[in-house]
Specification:
The chain is of the alpha/beta class. It is 39% helix and 22% strand. It has 9 helices and 14 strands.
């Protein structure tokens, strides 16, 4: 999910490239731009990751093992995955680029390319994605409208403070992922990471009490789960994360 960071916009990017040197270079370069970047080396892994983690942008090479990039693109759209896709290809035939666009690619970039051009194209795709993004974040019966700044759970309207709203929005944008207290401070509240992580715990407790649909202590963690030693995760039955053992990569909290 697109988010704002100091200096601009950031997103979750999946690089799909079987060339190890190029894949590592793209991952490192995009991370330096402030994005959260994962890298896989074949088409099957790309589809598994996209289904489990739903990246904002996929940088997709066409010449992949196990499943060609065109097959990945076609199946991605058949599954109604709305990730923006920037295709990388050494095939300079016009027909290939037209085929990519017809299958649902948002842009194509011919190899060899400069990183500055790739970076600019990623930014353009991100701006386009933000412009047409759904303002409503959902998780089971929980909904947060970023435009109206309104939160509901089922038919119940939940009143939140500005800090609580920002915290919940960030958790919804990263639902199913573990996020650290430092991330919540810096990304959700734009506070320094050393600003005192205990304040995060206090506000998480406030949120749990306001969002709880049942009675007792057990109900307080039904949506916001504590990941011991790492941070918090928006979980519950509505959207359980897919584990690595089930065939998809999962996020690791620092």
């Amino acid at each position: 999910m697109v988010r704002r960071v100091p200096g601009g916009l950031a997103m979750r990017v999946l690089v799909v490239e079987d060339d190890a040197a190029l894949g590592a270079f793209l991952k490192s370069g995009l991370e330096m731009e402030g994005h959260q970047v994962d890298w896989v080396g074949d088409g099957d892994a790309a589809l598994l990751f996209a289904a489990a983690q739903r990246p904002d942008l996929m940088v997709l090479d066409l010449g992949l093992p196990r499943r060609d990039g065109l097959e990945v693109l076609e199946e991605l759209r058949a599954l109604h995955n709305d990730a923006a896709v920037l295709v990388l290809t050494g095939r300079n035939e016009l027909e290939t680029r037209v085929q990519c666009l017809n299958l649902g690619a948002d842009d194509c970039l011919l190899k060899p390319f400069s990183f500055s051009e790739l970076k600019a194209r990623c930014k353009a795709l991100l701006r386009r994605r933000e412009q047409f993004a759904d303002p409503v974040l959902r998780h089971g019966d929980l909904q947060l409208n970023r435009v109206e700044r309104r939160v509901t759970r089922g038919a119940r309207v939940i009143e939140l403070t500005a800090k609580e709203f920002s915290l919940l929005a960030f958790l919804l944008q990263h639902r199913g992922e573990c996020v650290s207290r430092a991330q919540l401070l810096t990304d959700a509240w734009q506070m320094p990471a050393d600003g005192g992580t205990n304040v995060v715990d206090v506000y998480i407790n406030y949120l749990r009490k306001k969002l709880a649909s049942g009675d007792g202590e057990e109900a307080l963690e039904e949506l916001i789960e504590t990941v011991r030693g790492s941070g918090y995760r928006l979980g519950g039955a509505a959207a359980r994360p897919v584990s690595v053992e089930e065939g998809a990569a999962s996020s690791v909290c620092a």
